[in-house]
Amino acid sequence: MAKTSSKPVNAVPAKSAKQRAGKAAQGRTHAPPDPASEPPSGRVARAAERREAIIAAAMDEFVGRGYAATRLDDVARRAGVAKGTIYLHFKDKEALFEELIRTAIVPLVNRIAPPPNPGGSVRDMIELFARTFIQEVATTQRADIIRLIVAEGPRFPAIADFYYREVVSRGLAGLRAVIELGIARGEVRQPELARFPQIVVAPAIVAVIWKSLFEKHSPLDALEMFRVHLDLIFGERRAT
Amino acid sequence: MAKTSSKPVNAVPAKSAKQRAGKAAQGRTHAPPDPASEPPSGRVARAAERREAIIAAAMDEFVGRGYAATRLDDVARRAGVAKGTIYLHFKDKEALFEELIRTAIVPLVNRIAPPPNPGGSVRDMIELFARTFIQEVATTQRADIIRLIVAEGPRFPAIADFYYREVVSRGLAGLRAVIELGIARGEVRQPELARFPQIVVAPAIVAVIWKSLFEKHSPLDALEMFRVHLDLIFGERRAT
DNA sequence: CAATTATGACTGACCGGTCAGTCATCGTCA
DNA sequence: TGACGATGACTGACCGGTCAGTCATAATTG
How far does A131 lie from chain B, in Å, by closest CA? Predict the structure, then answer.
């Protein structure tokens, strides 16, 4: 074993280091103490918090090492929990992994979900979408989740299925609707584009990959790239 | 898992046995046997063949399982070789993996390399490039190599560096030159495109990912998608 | 204090890497 | 040319470390 320390590593600043904190303080039930940093006295709340800590820790480890190379010992240590505790919440390593992806997908979708833009132009809608995507995904750790899905997806059909169903098909359907609106309005001059909404998001996908592989060789201004791409779709540049 | 047979599988039919064909039948055999399936008698030739068999086997295993989950026992079995033999040719698992990628990159580059198209239009040049790429890569096992690089690249900087240097930077430079030619000729109407050649290849990249993750959910006509994309760059559709 | 939850030592399978021994091939000499 | 010793490619049993998953025990809770 070796590897780093024997104490919780806690790469996730959010909620972790406290689980041991108040055990001496007021292990008993009364005094409803600071609920934000003290261990909640309720068992269910406590359990839920542990579960989240495990998922957060697993996220870091799986993203950093990939599925096979991740050790549950490390996940446990990082979560500030004993290894056995993981098995109180998840059937096995694979279940933890799949649950992790599922958990990560939801906020991902919410982040970049249908930008409900009432009166704007179609270009603005798509540009807003792209800006959100690039800022909230391509730049952050969420990008690694996407890379993780690409990397492990073929070996975990359940994950690929889930991702296709929850993200890809919905996203493309929404995008297609927007494109068709743009065609109807005359903003988009290439009607065939509605057949391949993938074309619209392709540069964003490429940006995600680029960031994780080649950013250090040659930085990429993803947002600017996407604007140029939009110029191809909508015509001449507009002010931003 | 899998296991398959205990005999060599030899997934790469190409040049496994023939390179030593001529002088082969000397060692002790009389009747010149089928040079395509008999082991060559020369020790060096034999060794080279084994090395190739190991790489071919490693390719299948690494692509199918990822780096960490691949067992060298399986590679050896698939190559029809004892495990120790692997270590006569490669320092360790990591060296085998990196060498494998290196070996795979060269034919990849040659396949889709500068399409020396003299008189044609820029669109034709790019379309030929895309067609070659999609037919020779996106459709074949080579796509898995790309996925493998995306998946493992962050953990193997040497591989990411190599890939960037040998493929990405050169490819983009060539593409940029072609784009600038197109701008000069007036074929490409968006001069900014030269700043982001990634946009041109993005749909091809997306096609590679799509094929390996979602093809079964929803088949994608990559070539047609790319044509639509070219329409965005060059304007109205041309006959093909 | 009984029930529930957490712990971490432990197990057993697994796998990367090693190495002493084998034998086909090669060089050499009669 | 044929025989024979030298060579080194090849083998696979083996070793040591690793890690997913278990379970008897301890701690906590209501």
Answer: 16
